[in-house]
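Lecture notes, unit on protein representations.

Consider one protein chain, 192 amino acids long.
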Amino acid sequence: ASGAEPTASGESVTISSALQQATVYACIRVLSESVASLPVKVYELSGKGRKESTDHALAHLLGDAPNPEMTSFTFWESLTGALALTGNAYAEIQRDASNHPVALWPLDPQKTDPKRMPAKADGTPGELVYETSDGMIGKTRLIASADMLHVPLFSFDGLKGLSPIQLARQGIGLARAAEKSGARFFGNGGRP
């Protein structure tokens, strides 16, 4: 929302402007780097309980390299940062001809939305899909829910998480206004 409505302080708060606030940036960085540094393990259920499965294909995707362009650290850092900023983290699941996952690709949460298709003739709810324009110039595409990893934060509908930045926009706007006021004061030689 680049043309966001100004806060009471007169400052517009968007994802980009919020990240320019040192406290917001530091919090997002600490959260995303901390989560990204945690080990990811895949477990198999057996007759004796569960055991770690290091040779499972998902163990490699989730713990080593989710796609040919990213390390596991970069992937989880990206998803956690998106979640903390927008309330949603999305990753498209790429599958091979046998329908096995072969890669996970993070999607821009500002360009991706869950959508419910129209209800069926018998009244049952329509299929859940994800509409994205990420990587597409002037176009959108639909991704089946089976091919999407979506982590929402708190949500009223269970489909789309609420953005912590938008929920805290008044406080972030005040901090931005105070920072600008202080900069002008010191830029004017300490004279009001």
